[in-house]
Amino acid sequence: MSRTSIRLTSAVAAVAVIAVPLAAASSAGAATRPAPRHTAAMDFADLLGDAVGYYADSANADGRSLTAMQSASSEVASMLNKEFGKGFLTVTGLSDRNKDGRDDDGRLVVRVVDNRATLTMHRDGSYAVGDSGFVFRNPTAVLKESAQSFDRILRMAGNASDGQDPWDMGLIKDLKAEMPTGVRVVSDHDGNHDGYDDDGRLTFLAGGKAVTLTIGNTPKQVGTVTYGATWQSRAPKRVHHPVAPPAAGPASAKGLARR
Questions:
Q1: Which stretches within the chain are classed as H helix?
Q2: What span, in angstroms and rounded, lies between the C-alpha atoms of 153 and 112?
C-alpha cells in the first residue's frame, strides 16, 4: 500500500470509528433560532477535502485537479461503503467539460445516507464544507421519511465491523443531528440505566404532527413507522437484547451452596 493510501486509510478509520458526529454545541444566541445542523455528511466531506488536498499536494497539482478529486473520492467511498454497507456514502459533481484537467467548479456533493454536504476545493488545496440539506423523496412525508432514514442509519451502524446495537442510547442521541431542520426526536429513555432505550420506540415531531419508529429487535431487522406518538400505543416486548445477564458473584455462589 502506498504512503498516500496508508495516510488516507488511517484518517478514514479515525472518523469511521463513530458512524455519526456528535451534535454541534449551540451558541449562546441560539435560544431564539435553531442551531445550525452538523451532520455526518459534513464530517466526511471534511475528510474528503483533506484527502483531495493531500493528493494534489503530492502531485504538485492544483487543488481542483480532476485526478486528485477522482482518486480521493473513489478511495474514501470504497472504504466507507465496505465498512457500513453499499450506498452509505456517494460522491457526485465531478466534471471537466473544457478538458483542462481541473474540475469545472471545484465542487463535490457528498451524500451520507439521506444528508448532503458540499465540498468546495480551492486552487491552493484549501477547501470549504457546507450543509446541503436532507434529501426527501416525497416532500409531503417529512416525518415518515425522517423516521425511515433514522432506521436505515441505525442498521448500517449495527452492521459495521464494530457495530452498535440499534437500541444503544448513545447512538440514538448522536443520530438526532442527522434529522432535517424542524424535526425533533423524543421519547428516547433509559429508565433502568443499562445504556439502551427502554422500549425501542422513538417519536418524531414536526408541525404539530407525530410518527413513531419502532426499532427492530436486531441490527438487520427493519423498523416500523406508525402515525401518532409513542404514548398512544402499547410498548412492544423486545425479543433480543445484547446485555448479558450478570455473572454469579461470591454471594450468589454461597446461596446456591447452602441449597
A1: 3-16, 40-58, 66-84, 142-159, 169-175, 250-258
A2: 9
Same domain, 69 and 147: no
- pLDDT, residue 162, reads 72
Domain assignment present for 242: no
For 182: left if phi > 0, alpha if psi spans -120 to 50, otherwise beta; the answer is left
Give CA–CA dist 227/24, Å, rounded: 30
Same domain, 16 and 107: yes
116 - beta bridge partners?
111
Sheet hosting strand 107-112, strand order edge to edge: 89-92, 107-112, 115-121, 127-134
Judge whether 55 and 72 are in contact, CB under 8 Å. yes
Greatest distance between any 2 Cα atoms in the chain: 86
DSSP string, 86-145: TTSEEEE----TT-SSB-SSSEEEEEETTEEEEEEE-TTS-EEEEEEEE--SSTT-HHHH
Beta bridge partners of 131: 117
196 and 95 within one domain: no
Write the pLDDT tens digit of every residue in 142-176.
999 999 999 999 988 877 777 788 999 999 999 99
Q: Which of 122, 121, 45, 39 is nearest to 80 (CA)?
A: 45
How many domains does one find in the chain? 2
Q: What is the pLDDT of residues 218-237, one digit of tens each?
A: 878 899 999 999 877 777 77
Verify that 85 and 155 share a domain, yes or no.
no
User: Do 147 and 204 touch, CB atoms closer than 8 A?
Assistant: yes
pLDDT of residue 114: 95
Give yes or no for residue 17 having a pLDDT over 50. no
